[in-house]
Amino acid sequence: MAMKVEHEIHSRRKGRNMGVGLLLLGLIGIVFGLTVVKVLGLTDIRQLEKFDHVARPQLEPGALEAAERRAADVAAERAAAATATQEGATE
Amino acid sequence: MTDATNQTQTQTQDAQMGDYFALMKPRVMQLVVFTAFVGLVVAPVGINPFIGFVAILCIAVGAGASASLNMWWDADIDAIMKRTVKRPIPSGTVSEGEALGIGLALSGFSIVLLFLATNALAAGLLAFTIFFYAVIYSMWLKRSTPQNIVIGGAAGAFPPMIGWAVATGSVSIESVLMFALIFMWTPPHFWALALFVKSDYGDAGVPMLTETHGRTVTRKHIIAYCAPLVVVALWLGFTSIGGPFYLVVAVALNIWFLKGCYAIWRRTDADSDADNHAVEKHTFKVSLYYLFGHFGALMIEALLRNYGLTSWAGW
Asked: Are residues B178 and B136 in the same domain?
């Protein structure tokens, strides 16, 4: 007796399964397309990092400006310290 | 009867994709897709075509989901009415549980995807539309008041407003008037239908106006609803999405539809029975042209405006 690999239910539900398969492929296409459109639409590349589910304080509004101000303050402090050291050495 | 026989009988009734698609009322979906598309196209804000496509798809799927929920809830009366007896549930191809599951799953899918693709307002409006059609109309109003289709008509009126919200992220007078156009059009459209399929609704115990207040009152209601309908239709012509082309089309369509509604109002039931409801059937057909004509004109008006072709009229 020959083995019947395909059960009758497979042929009966073939159209239905094909339909579900096509729908899933369509869903993949939609999600992929939306991702491409949304990413290409970003004006600032930092916005991309907002979607990785990790808290990133540096991405908060004003974070960049605050960091720049802090860096300027540190640079000024170092310059002042260097000047003071130089003056001390001269004396 | 053995278990094997039972199994064979069930197996022969396996639903195909077409049966599931029929659950979504594809003919109603055409209107939803068309009006939502027009709402999107006439909006003053451009949108990426792919996002626009996904938005329309979500609105269509949302409409299909609410239709599926409606078929699940109304399976008992669908089996009684001639017009609906061949639907997937009464015909036995799809079970009630499947219809409920598909309706709920597609509702969630369409709302979430629309939110991710566009904005919260559009997704919220779609969610409210599905809720309104499935719960307010199907579960509550349809079997309890003859004003069912008046208030329930709001569910079919939301799509252009959602389309507009997809593009603009807001609600404005233009989108409210597009909503009002479909909302005011629904009662005369359905009552014209009810006048020539009178026995169906009565047999199913659905309190259509024709059954609760009689056909003469229904005729009066049809002409009464035409007055605000005409006002809304012409008002749209004077908003930012209207223009000379739309106004010409709107005036012609309103005269045509009013003529039909007036004829329905002036007729007696004896006249109607004598010619097999010819005027009612004709006016019902005109009502379809009426709605597609108005939204088609709005779309053409938007195209003319984009190409600067309305300036000749000093608009």
From this structure: no
Q: A9 to each of A5, A82, B12, B14, B297, how far by Cα in Å? A: 11, 85, 10, 10, 50
Q: Is the pLDDT of residue A32 over 60?
A: yes
Chain B residues within an 8 Å CB radius of A13: 14
ipTM: 0.76
Using a CB-CB cut-off of 8 Å, the residues of chain B touching A9 are: 11
B284 contacts B260 by C-beta, under 8 angstroms: no
Model confidence pLDDT, tens digit, residues B224-271? 999 999 999 999 999 999 999 999 999 999 999 999 999 999 998 888
CA B91-B95-B99 angle, 5° bins: 105
Please provide residue B119's backbone torsions phi and psi, each rounded to the nearest 5 degrees: -150, 170
Decide if B4 is inside a domain: no
Q: Do B31 and B167 sit in the same domain of this protein?
A: yes
Do B121 and B29 fall within a single domain? Answer: yes
How distant is the alpha carbon of residue B181 from its chain centre?
A: 11
pLDDT at site A58: 67
What CATH number is associated with residue B63?
Answer: 1.10.357.140
Residues of B with CB below 8 A from A33's CB? Answer: 50, 54
The answer to whether residue A12 is domain-embedded is no
What stretches of B119-214 show up as alpha helix (H) in DSSP?
120-131, 148-168, 173-196, 198-204, 209-212
Mutual orientation of helices B278-306 and B244-266 as an angle, nearest 10°?
A: 170
B117 touches chain A (CB under 8 A): yes
Do B237 and B185 belong together in one domain?
Answer: yes
Task: Work out how many domains chain A is built from and give that number.
Answer: 2
